[in-house]
From TrEMBL:
InterPro entries: CHP02679 (IPR013495), CHP02679_N (IPR024466), DUF2399 (IPR024465). It comes from the Bacteria. The lineage of its organism: Bacteria, Bacillati, Actinomycetota, Actinomycetes, Kitasatosporales. It comes from Streptomyces laurentii. Pfam families: DUF2399, DUF3323. Residues 39-245 form the Conserved hypothetical protein CHP02679 N terminus domain. This is TIGR02679 family protein.
């Protein structure tokens, strides 16, 4: 439009159409322009006030008609504006002058969609670098989590950039403090505090990265961070052991044949210097306690996970593996037990210790009374794919306590190990 050739008389336009009593009319016209609809036909306002009716009458030069609703024809308004010279280009030019340029909604949507594509660029790059996160990154783009947390693509881009920076560094090896890690990577010790948007999205990514099961609550969040090597502190994460040696304290406890609880701090500052050739691993403390009661210092070395492997457990087992230990694992024959075993398998290599489909079938056949039914969602058993199929076939769970005699038979050693330290070494 050549505004110099057909200028809008803005002063008259504001008196005629720009008052508050016709704001509803401007809003209806602008909405039609945004949607690409023609400015013809009637628009109505239910339960109009006398002031709104009077404003419409001044605009049209005649009463707008009776009835409860106030009805105005847009082509009639356009004709008035052109004929009076107030807006020679008509209603479109008038509304644009009063309310600002109109951007079609389709163009707005295209622009916003492109902005979100660009906002997700850090996740796209991360998925290219870490293929195990590709499926997760796709879910995050689709499930609306980022949009709920960031609201706008302008806020989402820096948020996802921070998330990508965190996940690129995980799992942290060796494990380290969550707050120190946050300060190093994001510039603030509180950047990954509970409830912050980066922490919420990072915890979602950690589940995909480490296989940590879904959950909720403070204890679950602590365990999820720990599964990626990030700890709220270095003494809360512990692992239960029996007859390991390699430090004065471990040697003394092994001489006594008593269980020992190791913290992550101890493992970080003074890990075992030696390892046995084979280390057995169990899921439940009852197995370790029974081995200590039955054999004492004559029991073979044993590590107990006590559920999902803690950061301390993972640190210990990785260290023993690096020293040359062969790891043998047994857990409950149920879906939860197989998820624990799978998580462990993602961090350290192990071979099954009576934890196969054949052992499960034998335990089911020998069980009396009948074992409890399986519950929960099915899981895989990558170390023995037939095991998952056997569980689905029989539909019952066999806990470690039910096969305790067989496990204990494997944990007896005939010759006691040489004592490496005494209490005077502590």
């Amino acid at each position: 439009m050549d505004v110099n050739r057909n200028p809008v008389d803005e002063a008259r336009l504001r008196r005629l159409l720009g008052g508050p009593d016709l704001a509803w009319l401007l809003e209806r016209v602008r909405r039609r322009l945004e949607r690409g609809q023609p400015l013809t036909g009637p628009v109505s306002l239910a339960a109009a006030t006398p002031a709104q009716r009077a404003a419409a009458e001044r605009l049209l030069g005649r009463p707008p008609g009776g009835g409860r609703a106030l009805t105005v024809r847009l082509d009639a308004v356009d004709a008035v504006l052109v004929r009076s010279g107030v807006s020679p280009e008509g209603l479109t030019a008038a509304v644009t002058r009063l309310t600002g340029p109109v951007v079609p909604l389709e163009e707005v949507r295209r622009s916003e969609d492109q902005a979100w594509v660009e906002a997700y660029a850090p996740l796209t790059a991360l998925a290219d670098e870490v293929p195990s996160l590709a499926e997760w990154a796709g879910r995050v783009r689709e499930d609306g989590l980022v949009r709920r947390l960031a609201r706008t693509p302008e806020a989402a881009r820096p948020l996802l950039d921070r998330v990508a920076r965190v996940l690129r560094e995980l799992p942290a090896e060796p494990p380290r403090s969550l707050s120190v890690f946050a300060a190093d990577i994001l510039g603030s010790a509180h950047a990954l505090d509970d409830g912050t948007p980066p922490a919420t999205i990072c915890l979602s990514g950690i589940r995909a990265l480490t296989g940590h099961p879904d959950g909720a609550g403070a204890a679950w969040r602590r365990a999820a961070w720990a599964s990626a090597g990030l700890l709220r502190d270095d003494v809360s994460s512990t692992v239960l052991t029996l007859n390991l040696r390699g430090t004065p304290a471990l040697d003394w406890m092994a001489d006594m044949g008593e269980p020992c609880v190791l913290t992550l701090r101890q493992l970080a500052h003074r890990p075992p210097r030696t390892t046995p050739s084979v280390v057995h691993i169990c899921e439940n403390p009852a197995v370790l306690s029974a081995a200590a009661d039955t054999y004492g210092p004559d029991a073979l070395p044993l590590v107990c996970l006590q559920g999902q492997p803690s950061a301390a457990a993972l640190a210990l087992l990785a260290h023993l593996h690096e020293l040359g230990a062969a790891l043998r694992y047994h857990g409950d024959f149920d879906w939860g037990g197989m998820r624990i075993a799978t998580t462990l398998h993602q961090h350290v290599p192990w071979q099954p210790w009576r934890y196969t489909a054949d052992e499960y079938r034998a335990a089911v056949a020998a069980a009396s009374p009948a074992p409890p039914p399986l519950t929960g969602m099915a899981a895989l058993s990558p170390w023995d794919p037939d095991l998952a199929a056997a569980l689905a076939e029989h539909g019952v769970r066999i806990e470690e306590e039910a096969v305790l005699d067989s496990l204990l038979a494997d944990l007896r050693q005939d010759v006691r190990p040489v004592r490496h330290a005494t209490c005077r070494d502590l």
